[in-house]
Known about the structure:
It is a single chain. Strands 1, 2, 3, 6, 7, 8, 9, 10, 11, 12, 13, 14 and 15 form a 13-stranded antiparallel beta sheet that branches. Strands 4-5 form a two-stranded antiparallel ribbon. The protein is mostly beta strands. Helix content is about 5%, strand content about 60%. The chain is globular.
Amino acid sequence: NTTATITYNRLYSPNVYTESNAEWSAFAVTKQFNAYGLNAYAAFTDKFDYFEPRSWGAYFRVPRWFGGGGWLSTNYQKKWAIDANFYYVGFASFKEWNYLSYMLSPRIRLSNKMLLLINASAEHQFHDRGFAVPFGSPVDSIAGILFGERNRLNVTQFIEWNYTLTNRMNVSLRARHYWSRLSYHQFFTLNNDGTLSPNATLGLDVNGVSAFNLNYNALTIDGAFRWVFKQGSEVSFVWKSSVFSSEKEIDPSYFQNMQNLFDVGLFNSFSIKLLYWLDVAELRKYPRHQNKP
């Protein structure tokens, strides 16, 4: 199966042109129930982004872009299955600016009642340009709208274990780590025509540390027991453990980053949730007590 789409976009207010692009996609399923897909996309013109500047009437002119990728998903009925994808986006007039993302997710059926899911994905943005959001208080400031050029890395990974006790009871355990690293290289001023002009902003705070760089981590661990004791009714026991950190240090390796995260300390919580479905038809079965004269 294959499809092709051409898109033309305008804003409602102000009534202006924003972008037009084309996309092609195709997918196939084999006799073994393995699925595969391909995608390709490209912009016909530069994009006029009226949302990125965060200021009414201003726009950022994004260079014409192109990209493509693919994915696969093998038969879930097998003991081993896998999901994976890969995508790339580049920009015609600025070859250093590009996006790269990929994901790999094995599925392992340990038994008829036990399933193990593993997922790891990463998104790289090289020399990305956009509105500069400070996470601190920069010393220097400029008149106008501040943009920046930065590298961004987003890594998400989780492992999930599910065990079905009966057709009404199951236990699950899930651990997820999200890591986002943002590093600025240069700053610009947004011009009236949507282009960028370099400026002398360093983006440093009073301590000489970047007010725009960020190293953010979120680690969560969830354990749950779910019992459906009646149709539409269930009770859940959930344990959660989590830790979050936000730092200016962007150079540590992955393992050093994890060590710094655990030094923050975990926060634990426990909750019970009861959901009961009250059927009016059942209430009508019970006899009503009438007052005697």
